[in-house]
Fold:
Amino acid sequence: MFDGIPAVVSTRWDREFIDGDVLRIHQEDLCQAMHIHPDNKYTSDGGSQAHEIAQFLKKSAPDQRLHEDFTKLLILNVLLGNPDAHAKNYPLIYPIDRPVRLAPAYDIAAILPYKPDSTVAMKIGGRNVPGEIELRHWHLALGRRPRHPRSSCPPVRTQSPTSAHAFSNDLSHRPDHFRGWKMIWAVTQMRAAWMFNTLPVRSDP
Structure:
């Protein structure tokens, strides 16, 4: 609280204290890293789709941590229907003497109570409407080719229910007077169940 006004205070992740000195940690968003003009940060404006970013991150980090962290955050943003999860809101940070990694998530917006049919900022396998994103689209987005027509996509099967469960636990502590929390909880659970199920996978997007 500041003079009676509630506020959110966040610790900066682009600074480190070393031997009493404050050092600036370099960071760049995915538009910068992939040489994409900021005006094209949304897929609809000519920006990258999820599969292009996934391929870039796989090449950037041999240990695949970047790709895995991006996958987790991407799934959460689709569950929430986040319309603002564009390439500039996925920044990379370069800690001193440590591998590059994805910065902590920020600018997470859930407008489900106001516009349940909202599109997401980044296309998943060519789709940006959460209700139209099937398992086959996740295969395309994450660069995974199914060996069997009904095979599953492990990151989606494991992270979808995990993300939804963690988010719903957080919502349980929110004020009951805001009815929107119940809608957010219900929709994220439904979308997680949709993505968790093994759906038919077709070769065409």
In short: The CA atoms of residues 40 and 47 lie 5 Å apart. The domain at 23-196 is CATH 1.10.1070 (Phosphatidylinositol 3-kinase Catalytic Subunit; Chain A, Domain 5). The beta strands are 15-18, 21-24, 26-29, 91-94, 101-102. The radius of gyration is 18 Å.
